[in-house]
Amino acid sequence: MYEKSIELLNRAIADELAAIHQYMYFHFRLDDLGYVPLANLLKMTAIQEMLHAERIAERILFLGGEVEMELAFPVEKIHEAEAMLARARELEQGAIAMYNGFAMEAAQAADSGTRKLFEELVAEEEGHWDQFERQADFIARFGERYLALQSFQGEPGAEE
Ligand SMILES: [Fe+2]
Ligand SMILES: [Fe+2]
User: Fold this and answer.
1) pTM to 2 decimals?
2) Domains of the chain, residue spans
3) pLDDT band at residue 160 under the 50/70/90 scheme
4) Ligand in nearest proximity to the CA of 92
5) Which ligand has the nearest atom to the CA of 90?
């Protein structure tokens, strides 16, 4: 009865798991570049995607399905902050479009619980997109090197 929803939810979890891997990679790279606040944003976003994966997995189990642990796409090994933010915004836009479509498919399958979950995820992915857009806008205005200057505030032992 809930086969369609379980299939959609497993496609969603594959996207979340891949996003977690990608954002963790960006976090490590940004930290290595000394761009501490932006590195922290990627880390916090990866944690939020993990919480999304958890909510999706709980829904799959509630519906009696199995949680597949596939990754939807491989990690892209990008080294520049600007290109990372472009990729991150692309991933969020992809998730927003996908979850909007899944919400409609779940409604058609008469599963309003799953529809509601996808609608909540759309709103949260829009929030991620907005944060990445804001950072990309700062880089466009001040250049990538501003990220290193900004990092002094985030370094342990830095003067207030
Ligand atoms: Fe997510
Ligand atoms: Fe997201």
Assistant:
1) 0.93
2) 3-154
3) very low
4) 2
5) 2
